[in-house]
Amino acid sequence: MKLQTKRYLALGALALGAAVAGGAGAPMPLAPASTPLSATAAMRDPAGQVLGTARFVQQGMGVQVTVEVRGLTPGQHGMHVHEYGRCTPGVDEATNTVVPFGGAGGHFDPGLSKNHDDPQAPNKYGHGGDAPMLNVGADGVGRASFTTDKFSLTGMNGVLNRTLVVHARPDDYKTDPAGMSGARERCGVIVRDGLTTRDYGLPGAQDFPEGVAYDARRGVIYTGSAVNGTVYAINAATGAVSKFQEGGALGRQAALGLKVDAQGRLWIAGGAQGTVSILTPDGMTLKVLETPKSPNPYINDLTPAADGNVYVTDSTRPVIFRVDRNLNLTEWLDLANTPIRYGPGVNLNGITATPDGRYLLAMQLNTGELWRIDLRTKAVRRVMTGLTNGDGLLLDVSPAGRTLYVARNKDQVVSKVSLSADYGTGQLVAEEPLRGLRFPATLAMVEGDLVVTQAQLDRSMAGIPPETPFRLTRFGKF
Description:
There is one protein chain. This protein has helices at residues 3-22, 457-462; strands at 38-44, 50-59, 62-69, 75-77, 79-82, 90-92, 97-99, 134-136, 142-148, 163-167, 184-189, 191-192, 198-201, 209-215, 220-225, 231-235, 241-245, 258-260, 266-269, 275-279, 285-290, 299-304, 310-314, 319-323, 329-334, 348-353, 359-364, 369-374, 380-384, 390-398, 401-408, 413-419, 426-432, 440-446, 449-454, 471-476. The radius of gyration is 23 Å and the shape is elongated. A hairpin with a 5-residue loop joins strand 19 and strand 20 (275-279). By secondary structure, it is mainly beta.
């Protein structure tokens, strides 16, 4: 792994460690929706026959689960949520052999406990997927009904697009990795009810897509790898993927925030290299801009503004940079003289410009604060707080109002914020987990839809293998 990537992951670990350990990264509670978030898993045997269902209904920060499965031996059967949304054969870590439903992976473990425990144990001590047992009667029908806050359909404990697995034997709730519960006899993928999305898959095993941008004239979505700097071009209509520029081009080892300007040029934030790269529409490097030498640079995101300049955030140095029309990079705003206070971890991250040319909006990930910066006076105002783990921003201004979408990476939701007419205040109005987000980092608008990257950088930080293929997900505005 490259030095730049290691530094990125270290910054992220500092910012997100508290959320993993203590649950502080849970999404802000909203007013209950008229229809609760729900999901269903069709429970199949190894031959693929559906022999039951599991129903999940969101209740507050937890979920109500109702399971009925047929064709099992009478008695108690261990039951767990597993990491991956695959009911396919694969290697079972308990036996190190290929078994039915081994493709579901190990137990869901959002607290990184690496420990099997009982269904009442906090997630920092035991797997989040540890669930009560399924009780099977003499008729071979197993039933269970329970409510748990160990997992959810949204947030960092979200189980959408994971699997529910029923085992052959009882669970002793102590033996790693699966409580001695034996073979995997039933498996169902937990699928969100009543939602349509579209995924754009990426070809690489180590893509970790962080940034996304859209060129409407060409119908091309760009995304870049936080790990190796490779940039892909995706046909928005067909989903066809091509390599736009190889990672390592002119020293670029990471591609974080991406934006397309009015000339169709692609701008790339270079992370710990402290650079901004500008690519032509045919994939050639036009220029690489270097920020001032520093032991700790971190260029994270950028945005073109109506004044013809591009504004750039640095997550470790308290400064906003500006690139003018002649591609000259300068320090534009020293944040030390503003209300924005830098601390450990990732500070200013996502940034966007208002279409009226008046303001920048910038997200501070480690504090959950959203800031408004006046482009004329450089005055800084806090718009709101509470957007924990806020990463990339997408501003949608229409006659209906001013809406800001925020990708909240570790919280695994996209948040919708309603902004006032002067962008000076904001209110969180909705959160969307889609069909199971995996560390959403940035957003782009594509023909009236939203596209979000599923960066999975939390897995890279923890040394956990990523779910592949990596993907971007397209969905309607909410």
